[in-house]
Amino acid sequence: MWKQILSKLPRKSQKPDQDLQRNPDSGPNTPSLGSGRIGAANPAAKRASAAVFPASVIAGIEPLLPFKDVSSSEKMNLFISKLSLCCVVFDFTDPAKNIQEKELKRATLLELLEFVSENPPKFSEPAILASCKMCSINLFRVFPPHCRSRNTSSGENDNDDEPMFDPAWSHLQIVYDFLLKFVTSTSLEAKVAKKYINHSFILRIIDLFESEDPRERDCLKAILHRIYGKFMVHRPFIRKCISNVFYRFVFEVEKHNGIAELLEIFGSVITGFALPLKEEHKVFLWRALIPLHKPKSLGIYFQQLSYCVTQFIEKEPKLASSVIKGLLKYWPITNSQKEVMFLGELEEILEVINMTEFQTVMVPLFCRIRRCINSYHFQVAERALLLWNNDQILNLIAHNRQVILPIVFPALEVNMQNHWNQAVLNLTLNVRKVLMEMDDALIMSCISNYQEQQEKMNVVDEKRKEVWEHLETAAASLKPIAGNTAVLVTH
């Protein structure tokens, strides 16, 4: 199509005087179509574009005309014509291919972006249809996310951790900017546009979040957020689709590039939830957000996830105990970095939890914290001990010290005797001092109980040692069976 247009462009004439007579507006400094600038009065270009876009389709409007050269009543028709012109897509894997055509399309896209940014007249239904069609062709059909950002046909890529940047971004960025301005424009009526910005369109927008280009995901985040804000009728569908992405990520594939961006959208959505929270929102917290703590790649989106969870608890504090139970369920036993993140999120939750909810989970919670205090990974132990530096958490502990102190005090004693890291030892001493100041009598009782438990354990260890020694002596006194050699295992 573009070759057909460019092939009919005027070439350098051998009779410039005759050309000037035919077209007095043209001259030696008039920009050509191939330069990427839009020629306003080129009859050959008009004939070429008219051959591709018949007058019956575009109401006789020449798509290469600038908007300033047509009347206000014709601008919407020209807008549709330019959108049709931008429905042609190119292969950007070869930079030397279709250079002039790509430049022409880019210039036209910039014109369209400028038009929708300057408070245009109300968009007609054909204009909305043409806009959605142009965005769909450029974003969905030709460049799906799984093949647009990375070529995976030859097997696994050696640089999977490095972001891949789309070679077509010079065009895609303008299309995304156009779509964002189009959706947010006051000239777009939601009750009309919802027919075209429909479930199918939104679903494909969400599918694009798998793109490996971070610039693209950032654009998609802004667009989907604006669609959610403008089209109230689509809000339940958007929430359902995002939930499905999370479910598939957690329970099936554990690979998706856009989890952080989708959580960012949901973070702002949660702040707008009305009280009391609907049951569907609580289900989303329990079935989607809390299980998102399970994947190994938690660190990529942990900040956004933690924010969403905290927003839920601030909306309805009774959810705090359910969230803590969920964290304990998915607690990482063999991943120390995730343990540090979990402890950080626990601190944020404990800062806003009420006393009643805290008391329902404090026993299993501090049993887990006790194990973290004794962790041989010094960062985990440090993070657990630093919880005592938080005044709100210290207040919760003080009001429930009869239950909590007997749980955690033995862990402090074990650290003081066995831990290898000096920073952990110093923090342990500080926490022990704080607890002594909190309730000296209770701590003395804990010390006494700890010593009794140690004595009992020593007795058990001695008995076990005696049993092994007896077994070893008995085994050594046995005569070996002919043909077999006895092997004595010492302990």
TrEMBL record:
GO-annotated molecular function: protein phosphatase regulator activity
Biological processes per GO annotation: signal transduction
Keywords: Cytoplasm
UniProt entry tagged with the keyword ATP-binding: no
Highest taxon, organism lineage: Eukaryota
Functional description taken from the UniProt entry: The B regulatory subunit might modulate substrate selectivity and catalytic activity, and also might direct the localization of the catalytic enzyme to a particular subcellular compartment.
Protein name: Serine/threonine protein phosphatase 2A regulatory subunit
Protein encoded by which gene: LOC105168665
